[in-house]
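Chain and backbone:
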Amino acid sequence: MLVCESQRRQEKSAATAKSGIKVVEILEATTGGTRRHLFDLVMNLDPARFALSIVCATRRDPAFQADLAAFRDRGLPVTVVPMVRELRPWADLSAWRQIRRYLIEKRPEVVHTHSSKAGFVGRLAARSARIPFVVHTPHHFAFDMEIGGLRRAFYLQLERWAARYTDRFICVCPAEKAAALRRRLAVPDKFTVIENGIGPTATAPDPAAVERWRREIGLPPNAPLIGAVGRLTRQKGHADLLRAMPAVLCRFPNARLVLAGDGELHRALVTLAAALDLSRNVIFAGQREDVLPLYPLLDVLAMPSLWEGLPYTLLEGMAAGRAIVASAVGGVPDVLRQGESGFLVPPHAPAALAEAVCGLLADAELRNRLGVNARKVVAQQCRLEEMVARTAAVYAACGAKETEL
């Protein structure tokens, strides 16, 4: 009996070594930073070490189809499951059944779920399918958003339930781990902090593309430019930025604000800009996949978010050497140090935001110093290759344990 068991383990270990550790990535939130994180991760993991496949929804962002094409070109199997963001019991049950059926068929060693909906449905499906190891990256816990008390308590209970079926949490910033530990989701040893990272291509935009941006937004000569990059949703705090602009324009009448992004609040924000008499000074650039060439044009990057994990816009702005004013939420203070690499303000604080922006617009030397320091922080702390390598180490450790079972 012992000989047979030992032989079984050896055969399993040999098979894993030959084909790579089988990992299934599950994602519903195919927008913004979560989408970026998944793309960077799966496109850079070593295919000789990991046999990856992706289970995802496609309802949120049509541009995600380009990512799916890139995954398939790389030889990564993609399975579409119609998960929805909202709480819909029958749709969620259907998604759970489809994911469970897929996992039973594929028998991966590791399942890695991302964000709230896929994190809940995917983890329950993985445990039901008896997958040996389940990894979850919250990308910001739903219970830590600005929502009503009843919803917050409900989401916290769901997360506590799903945490029982989670072998390892990968948090994208120390603040995310701290939020989980404050609410006692799991013991500290279950948490690993692997910060989002960016590669060298994010720091060197094409000069021709930079000039194309300048022409398209119609930037007047010598006009100070403030920029915000992100979806036009409540989370990103664009309304507070618009309310800060009248104070900025009192000191810098020729300043311009460019909002690069689109979303459900587009019409409301256009209306607010008109009501504040900002229509001449605010440029709605729409959703763009090529935002990197915008950063070199900015004098100040503004990020008045109400909640965040560790946003890629912040990392890209820092890598571009921009002066940044950001809300002190989530993982932002973990990388943006007050007065050293940027300025932090409270959320919902247009007056503080305006004051910080004006201070930067008035002092080119300060902007340059903060930008240089910000670039150094990203180069040292938020590198793509480290993010990928450390995630690979989590997968490898899970795979190694599975062969021992």
About this structure: DSSP finds 15 helices and 13 strands in the chain. Confidence is low (pLDDT under 50) at residues 1-17.
